[in-house]
């Protein structure tokens, strides 16, 4: 399948595309620089996978955002999916601009960047946005979405999670945290810290994409009662487009006490 066919596939209406009166769909996807397991770089192929997800909001990690090292993938993802696109670079040099991004069907009302860099290790961060859910439900409301990609060192992850939790200063606003947490151990300290704040959530395996063994990609919500389900998107295209599989969650549109 060539890039033109992939673009047409992403734009074509999906058989499952519909307005769900009960739930919003959110997804997180580490796109590995848009380089697939076959070694081919293709933002169009990533866009086609995102089209399969039929999500209202998608958090992306390892997104090439321009520079001489790799072309900016975000314009292709935005134009192909028709979603609003927000860049959250963690590395920003003339040679390479790289980091997180959020795609949204819903209006984005505010955007914040959180610096999660730790010592001399690779620069890390989180993209923190407020999404207007009235557009989807007809009921006034907002959802805070935090997209992140944590570091490879356990000490680094602990410091980053403390910084993230400290930033959740909007208790009346529902919060979704999603991204590549890079925690390889089920009972790692980083996960225990997050579970304490968000409560446990399903953690299907997403890495490596061809034969998933590790649950590196996660989605948490507060209040946890609004998180309906979490599943891995396992299409044939997704298994090749990146070394991670996308993780998809459904959340209730409204919280009923």
Automatic annotation (TrEMBL):
One record GO biological process: GPI anchor biosynthetic process
Record keywords, A-Z: Endonuclease, Exonuclease, Hydrolase, Nuclease
One Pfam family cited in the UniProt record for this chain: Exo_endo_phos
A GO term, aspect molecular function: exonuclease activity
Domain of life (superkingdom): Bacteria
Residues of the Endonuclease/exonuclease/phosphatase domain: 27-244
Keyword Transport belongs to the record: no
An annotated GO cellular component: membrane
InterPro entries given in the database record: Endo/exonu/phosph_ase_sf, Endo/exonuclease/phosphatase, GPI-anchor_lipid_remodeler
PANTHER family reported for this sequence: CALCOFLUOR WHITE HYPERSENSITIVE PROTEIN PRECURSOR (PTHR14859), ENDONUCLEASE_EXONUCLEASE_PHOSPHATASE DOMAIN-CONTAINING PROTEIN (PTHR14859:SF15)
Protein's name in the database: Metal-dependent hydrolase, endonuclease/exonuclease/phosphatase family
Taxonomy of the source species: Bacteria, Pseudomonadati, Pseudomonadota, Betaproteobacteria, Burkholderiales
């Amino acid at each position: 399948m060539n890039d033109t066919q992939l673009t047409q596939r992403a734009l074509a209406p999906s058989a499952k595309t519909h307005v769900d009166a009960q739930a919003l769909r959110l997804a997180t996807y580490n796109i590995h620089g848009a380089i697939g397991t076959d070694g081919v770089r293709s933002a169009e192929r990533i866009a086609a996978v995102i089209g399969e997800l039929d999500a209202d909001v998608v958090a992306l990690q390892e997104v090439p955002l321009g520079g001489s090292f790799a072309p900016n993938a975000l314009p292709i993802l935005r134009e192909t999916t028709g979603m609003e696109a927000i860049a959250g670079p963690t590395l920003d040099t003339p040679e390479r601009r790289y980091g997180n991004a959020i795609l949204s069907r819903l209006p984005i009302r505010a955007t914040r960047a959180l610096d999660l860099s730790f010592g001399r290790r690779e620069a890390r961060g989180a993209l923190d946005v407020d999404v207007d859910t009235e557009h989807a439900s007809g009921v006034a409301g907002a959802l805070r979405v935090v997209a992140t990609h944590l570091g490879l060192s356990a000490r680094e992850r602990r410091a980053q999670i403390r910084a993230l939790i400290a930033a959740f200063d909007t208790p009346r606003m529902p919060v979704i945290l999603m991204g590549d947490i890079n925690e390889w151990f089920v009972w790692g300290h980083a996960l225990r810290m997050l579970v304490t704040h968000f409560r446990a959530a399903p953690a299907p395996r997403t890495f490596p994409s061809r034969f998933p063994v590790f649950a590196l990609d996660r989605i948490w919500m507060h209040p946890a009662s609004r998180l309906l389900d979490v599943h891995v998107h396992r299409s044939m295209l997704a298994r090749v487009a990146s070394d991670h599989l996308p993780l998809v969650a459904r959340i209730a549109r409204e919280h009923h006490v």
